[in-house]
Each structure stands twice: as C-alpha cells, then as structure tokens.
Amino acid sequence: MELTRRQTLGLAAAAVAGSTVAGTMTANAQRDPWVRDTLSRLTLEQKVGQLFVCYAYGPTADTADARNTSLYGVATPAEVVAKFNLGGVIYFAWTDSVRDPDQIGRLSNGLQAASLAASGVPLQISTDQEYGVVFRFGPPATQFPGGMALGATRSAAFARSAGRIGGREMKSVGITTDFAPDADVNVNPLNPVIGVRSISSDPALVAELVAAQVKGYQRDGGIVSTAKHFPGHGDTDTDSHVGIPEIHHTREEWTRIDLPPFQAAIRAGIHSIMTAHIVVPALDPSGDPATLSKPILTGILRQQLGFDGVVITDSLGMKGVRDKYGDAEIPLRAIEAGVDQLLMPVDPGLAYNSVLNAVRGGRISEARIDESVARILWLKRATGVVDAPYVDLSRIATVVGTPANYAEAQRIADRSITLLRNDADLLPLSPAPRTIVVAGYSPKTLATALQSRGATAIVKDTGTTPTDAKIADAVAAAANADLTVVLTNKAWDTTVTDKLAKQQKLVNTLLATGRPVIVVPVRDPYDVAYFQTEPPTSLVTYGNAAVSMEAVAKVLYGEIAPAGKLPVEIPAKPDPNRPGPAPTLYPFGHGLTFDPEVTRLTVASYNIHAGAGEDNVFDLDRTAQAIKALDADIIGLQEVDVHWGDRSQWLDTLAELAGKLGMYPAFAPIYDLDPPAAGRPRRQYGVGVLSRFPLVRFENHPITRLSTQDPNPVPAPAPGFLEAEVDVRGRRLHVYCTHLDYRADPSVRRAQVDDTLNILAADSRRDLQVLVGDFNAEATAPELAGLWTRLTDSWTAAGKTSGGPNTYPAVAANKRIDFVTVGKGLTVRSAEVPAEVPVAEAASDHRPMIADLSFRP
C-alpha cells in the first residue's frame, strides 16, 4: 500500500517524537538513585545475569524438576534464578508455569523472593501473550482475539482496551513484561510464522493499532510492552524457528512497509523491542541476521530512530540465529550489535560464561554491560516491580477473567468476523432448530455455541490433517444434516501444517455433496483460495478463541451483523505455470454484511400426493429425502395419504417422517375413504405440517368443501383446514395448511376463500400468518381475489424467482397448485420451484414451492 504524503510526514514526526520519548530512558536511569546505587554494587557476575531471560521448569519456585538439573545443574526454579542472577524469566505452558492464576501468582512471588535474596534486584517476569493464536496465560484469563482480528475491527479503541485489560490481568499474577504486540506488516500470504499474528498488510493500520496496544499495555495496564520483530518479519516465506528467512525489500520498501509500526510504537513510548532472526540485505549486506546486526540495531534502531529502550532478542534457540555462529558466539555478537537482553539461549551456562569471559578478556567492555543493565534496571523501576515485587494473591480473582473483561473481549470478537461470501443466501440462518454438523479443526467450542441456540450439533473433529476415514465420516454425517459448518486452520499450508492437503480434500468433498456448507477459516483467511471451487458461503475469524466462536454463532443466526473488514487482501492460489502475482480474490477492506434486525424463515408447500411418484408406490425414505432437500423451516403437505397397503394411519407415517427429519409434525384429517375391499385398510386423507420449530399448538378448522364421494353433492363444512402455531423470536407465526376444492369448482372456492378469511381474522393483528396450500387454481383466478386482500402470493411478491412458477404435473408443468401466501409483516425475499428429479427418485408427481421469507421486529 502506498502511503499518502500526510501519512509519511506523520511517521517522520513520529520518529522525532519517539526519539524524545525513548531517549529519556538512559537519562532517567542515570538520574535515578536506585538505578545508580544498584548498578554500582552489583558484581560483574550479577550484571551479566541481568542480561539473560530464561525459563525454568516447575509450577512453584521450590519444585524440583530433573529438566532443570539437566539444563542448569540445579533442581528448582528458585535455584536457577539464584545461580545465574537472572534478570528475567519467561513463562510457558510446557514449563508448567501457567496452570492457573493462583499458581502463577505464587510462582511469581517465589521467584521474586529468590531473586531479591540473590542480588537484591527483582525479576522481570515475561510471557508471549499476543492473544489469538499465540497466548500462554489461558482461561480463566480473558482471551482476546489476536492481531489480525483487531485489524478487521479497524478500532484503535479496541486495541487499547485489549492491552489495558490484558496488562492488568498479567500484572495481577506477577507478569511484568508482555512480548506483544506483533508489529510486523504481513504482506506475504505465504508467511508461515506471522500470518494472523500481524494486524494487517497495511502499514498505516498496523502502526495505528500497535501504538494503541502499546498505550494499553504500558500506560493503562502498567506492564512493559515489547514490539516485535524488528526490523519486520511480515514478508518472509521461511519460519525463523527452522531456517534463516531473507527479506528482499529495498531500503525504500522497508521504509514504506516495515518501518511505520515500529516508529509508531516508539512514539507511543514503547519500553522494549524484540529483534528478528531475519536477513535484510538492503539494511545490512553482511548476511548476518538482524539480531546480530550492528547496522540494523545500533545504526537504525538506536541512532536513526532514537530508540533508547531495552532491545531483547527473539529466542536464541531458533535456527534463524544459530545457523551462522555457534551458541557461545551468538550472545557476544548480539551484545555487540546493540542488544540488551538475551532470550532463552540453548545452553544457558555456556552463554552466560561466554559473556562473562568476553568482558574479563576485554572483548566487551564492562561499560557496555553497564549500559544495558542500566536500561534493564530502569525498566524494572518504571513498571513498579522494584517498589512492589510481590502480588496480592487475594486480589487475583477480582482482576483476572472478570465478566466485564470477557464482555469487552466479546465486543471485539463480534466486530471482527468478516463475511466473505454469501452467494447461496444462507445467512443469516433462521432461528429454527436444525441439525448442524460442525467439522474440521477444533469444532467443539462452536458446536456448543450453536447448541445453545437450539441446534443439534454433531461434532466431527478432523484436526489439521484429516484421515480419509475421518473425511468420509464427516461427509456421511453431512448428508443427513440440515447444514455443515467446516472449520479450517492453515489449509493453504501444504509444506508444514497439512502436507497431504487433507483439509482441502475435506472441504472439497463436502462442497461436492450439494448440501448447504459454510466454510470458516479460523486462522489464516487465505484458506478460501485453496479449494477446487470457491465456497459460496464463507466467513473468517482470524483465530479460534471462544469469544470468536461465539461471535461466529451470533453472525450465523443473525444476532449481530458481520462487521469485520479484511485487513489483508486474499490472492488466488498461486499458479506455478503463470509467473507474477496471483490475481486478487478478495481485496483489502472487503466484508459483506446484512441487517441483523431481519429474521429469516423458509416455508415450503408440497403436494406430496401420498408420497407416490409416477410409479405410484409410497416410499418413506424417498419422501424424507425429497423433503430434506427443500431445507425449509416449515413445510405444508397436501394430499397426505397412504396408498392402499399395510399402513392405514398416515398420522403414524407423518410422525415417522418427522422423526427422520428431526422436525415436529401436525396433522389434520379431511376424511377417511372407505376400504377398497372388505378386510382392506381405510385410507386417511388430510394435510400436515412439518416444522423445525416446536409447535405451540395446532388445530383443525372446519371449512366448506365438497362431499368426499361421487357424484359430489352440495358443499358442506367439514374439518380439513390445519393451523399450526409456532414462536419465532417472540413473534407468533400461524401456519395454515389446506387442500382446497379437490373438484376445482369456482363457487366452492369462493366459499372456501370466505371461510379462510374468517379463520385468519381470529388471529392477533401483531401475529404473522402464512397460508400454504393446494388451490387447483391460478393466483389470478377471480374467485381467489378476496384472498389477496389479506394475503400476498409469494411468487408474485418475490424479489427473485427461479424454476417456476408451475408445480404440476412434473412431466408437463402447466398449473400452479402449490402456493405459499403471506400476511402483513412478512417480506418475500425469493421464491423457487425446484427442478424436477428423475421419476425413480421422485417422492411425488408434483413439484414443491419454496419461499424465503423475512420479518423485522
């Protein structure tokens, strides 16, 4: 993205302001009596120890762990701190450091006691709490969406509030430094290590939100914030954990793309910046990674940008920094380059003694060590750990994971969900209960959120590398469900994450079923470009925190409007046969939305004709399959009948059909036909309703109709006008289902219309009404005119229609038999008569009518 002149001038001003803010650290350190006195009394061994930030194994300071003995030669975390006079420690789950808030607080207090006893200097206790996909301090601590999700909200206020709350929660358990925010500008969709950790591919947006996060962590939260990874890790295609990435930006490109967020962080008063193990020839042609580069750390970061805070390395155990030099040489070159703190050396004893011997041997002056130690001491002084090294264990529960904190995290997540595509017009879903398969990566949390909204959720956790058996299982489940939501995690990455592209196979196979599928990348949005066909319904979350999954459920059900805007562009999948950049699939800033005040409802009318196709044989499974294909919330069935055979009660069959579909049945008999022969069962003839919503009540109203027997004597009132009542988000919906005028007599139809209007008039004016039925007449028939004073024909009112309008017979469509008609308050979004199917698959010789409806509160 090209920066405007105004943005360029602003960033230049930021650099000057940053120099002023950061440049005060050394001056303040020199003036502060505690810093001066402490520095003067520390031994060389203690000073060198202050440069190191290491981990130790064990949930308490006094826990003996063989892993400590192997690595450090002492057993407990307290002994590790004391032996090396460590300046800081870092917490991870795999070191057993972050089991729960109370345990963390006790560990912090124990380690601070050990440090104060050994050197009189408190520890800087740190962790990587970027949120989103990188976090160490898990629930009950508030789990915020990560960097790219914040970018999707475009809100600096959200970025700052997340930093404020996260900082306060960490400080309450004794964590004084967070290695966040990520200030990288992710301009490379194939970046294997940054991705959604970055806020955006737009330098200006990253700069704005990074500055806000810094203020949230430091000014509001009271802890040290660390911008990373300088000079910018956003355009790598190599993970620096396993190799040496090389950035090929020119100096001008680096200035335009990578620099602005670090300038903004410095201007915001950032206390610490983490280096990257990346080679940037335009900044340093030596081939050294930035962590070991004096031109980058001293020449650019210190001198050009004026940063005088603490510079800390990324982990020294990563291959990106270890390939060129040995583990004893790396810390020396880092210090010579301008680093203050050395994070997680592979062999702490070797690294510590290497630095100590370098000072004793004159390679590194003690004055150089003092310069870094002064910055580190001032950092501890500035964040309050010197005056208050211990945490109040009794207060932790009042700070960590409070309802107010989680509510803010949920507000952020709600604003981050980005709807990419809604071509199938699936969203928002109606509030009707339905069976939903939730498949793919870690689907349980979303499934729980959907279940709380009345769905029957079937969980198919296939992970990031699904087996063929798991794919087949998920696809089989999807065939019998109303909807499938499939979650992917870096499905694009077939180099490391999913080498056999099995996530892509899972999605491709689900899409090929023709059943409704929603694809949700829960990490990198780039996944959507890697499927055989572009998913017609897709949205992205940028992370799978519980609040993000709750936000997805809200969007799916239309409780909130999708508000996220892509903070990156999504290119098409690279074509190896076509050089140059791939075309853009979704541009920066893309994001669809809808009106959350609108409630969706799909209603179908189907003359099932006893469930008999042209072969005149009733087939319950075939009928269920045909009705399932409608994907309707409510279905009115006419000519509900059982052909002569073993079954005599259609009511039982309707209940069995409803059971197969997971729906609620209502039935209204019109009449029973006499048995065709002595000893044969009677036929019961009527109408039915199948509903995803539970039925509040149903009733069979009398209506004028012809006699059931030839030669059709005078009309007479008789039952056969079914009313089923459901509750849809607090509104009563009356669904009437009828099979009017079997003999197509206009005079009888006029009487039936009068009866219909009298029945409808009994409902509350606020209630919604839908009449589904079989009229044996065109909507324009004059005897139906009175009906349209209260109801509207969905076909003529639809915003769009397809496949119709005729519904009978399937082999030579020339009649409108099935209608969906709606009362006031209902809007017809679309109407459809589905294409006919082969006779062998047909459940009826009629074709249904489906109307997609909506209403507002």
From TrEMBL:
Belongs to the glycosyl hydrolase 3 family. The keyword Transport does not apply. The keyword Nuclease does not apply. PROSITE patterns: GLYCOSYL_HYDROL_F3, TAT. Residues 417-593 form the Glycoside hydrolase family 3 C-terminal domain. Residues 43-377 form the Glycoside hydrolase family 3 N-terminal domain. It comes from the Bacteria. Residues 1-22 form the signal peptide. This is beta-N-acetylhexosaminidase. Keywords: Glycosidase, Hydrolase, Signal. Its EC number is 3.2.1.52. It catalyses: Hydrolysis of terminal non-reducing N-acetyl-D-hexosamine residues in N-acetyl-beta-D-hexosaminides. Residues 604-846 form the Endonuclease/exonuclease/phosphatase domain. It comes from Kribbella pratensis. Pfam families: Exo_endo_phos, Glyco_hydro_3, Glyco_hydro_3_C.
